[in-house]
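Per reviewer request, we include the raw input and output of the structure prediction for the construct analysed in the revised manuscript.
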Amino acid sequence: MKSPSPIGGSVPLCGGGAVAASVSLCALSPVKLEEMHWDPSPTSGPVALTAQVKSAFPLREVHLEGEGQRIPLSPAGSGYTADIPRNGHYLLTAVGNNGQRYSQKVTIDCIDTAGPRLLAIETCSGRVWVTL
């Protein structure tokens, strides 16, 4: 006896055909990025990035690549996190144990790497005014 297959055609209800169909369905299970967040406020230090990744199977790895770096994200609660040390364009990639991948571009541009500049020094009535 056969039943309808979610991938088209029909699959035997018993026997090796059903196992082969379930294996191919497992291989098709996608990895999805549900949410990515970081604080865009200007900062002088690293930016904490968090990502919520959904997969029917365990994830093999989640990492960022860019600016000559490969930064692994660590599991944290129900998501993954990493500290991004500098501004730039990165590619977040999540890889499932079934080989499925998901990638998303992200640009970090809130790290202020330039120190203040001295624009002027003035004195008036015994006081010194500094403009940065």
